[in-house]
Write a structure and sequence with these properties.
This protein is mostly helical. Helix content is about 75%, strand content about 0%. The protein has one domain. One of its GO terms (cellular component) is membrane. This is Transmembrane protein.
């Protein structure tokens, strides 16, 4: 392994996993703080179900983005980290919008056809709380996220040239921060434009 390879961005390296664990811990801590301050406070089991849906959905999005980025990077001989950054940005904009649209559509169906689809009402698990209802809502949320990926990944693939062009402009601004470049190696994005 050359010195250049040792500084290359790796999505599956120790530093990458460490950063992801730290960020995940901060996200989970923020959910706990938010729950402790909400009024009225949800019952602990309801909060746990809601948090599990959010957390597992986030992991599903994260790992599908990682997988897509690694495959696209290897297939096109491009930097997988640049692909991940692009997919994360597009997912944060287009993916959240797609999930919102699909969830809003689902809520309309639930409102129109109550009580037939009452188990799909997000955050309501029945009285007494039903584990079956939780699993229905969990699978529904995973389906919504998966459907959003069907929109995002082809869009990212088709628009890869302009996206990488703008990514290069953004990352050129980071050149004055050598530590960021050292750990990400995004400076190779420029060579990826047009591939």
């Amino acid at each position: 392994m050359s010195a250049e390879d040792s500084e290359e961005c790796r999505l599956d390296g120790f530093l990458s996993f460490s950063i992801q664990i730290i960020m995940g811990s901060f996200a989970f801590a923020s959910l706990i703080i938010k729950w402790r301050q909400e009024t009225p406070r949800r019952a602990p089991l309801i909060w746990l179900f809601d948090t599990f849906k959010q957390g597992s959905g986030l992991l599903l999005q994260h790992f599908t983005n990682l997988l897509f980025s690694i495959i696209a990077g290897q297939y096109l001989h491009q930097n997988s980290c640049a692909w991940y950054m692009c997919s994360h940005i597009v997912d944060s904009i287009v993916g959240v919008f797609c999930c919102w649209i699909l969830h809003s559509f689902l809520l309309r169906i639930v409102s129109k056809y109550q009580p037939r689809f009452d188990r799909l009402r997000s955050g309501e698990y029945g009285d007494p709380i039903s584990l079956f209802t939780f699993f229905i809502q969990l699978n529904t949320w995973w389906t919504i996220i998966s459907l959003s990926k069907i929109v995002i990944f082809p869009l990212l693939w088709v628009l890869r040239t302009p996206i990488f062009y703008f990514m290069d402009i953004i990352l050129q601004r980071l050149e004055s921060h050598p530590n960021i470049i050292k750990y990400t190696d995004f400076n190779r994005v420029e060579s990826n434009i047009g591939k």
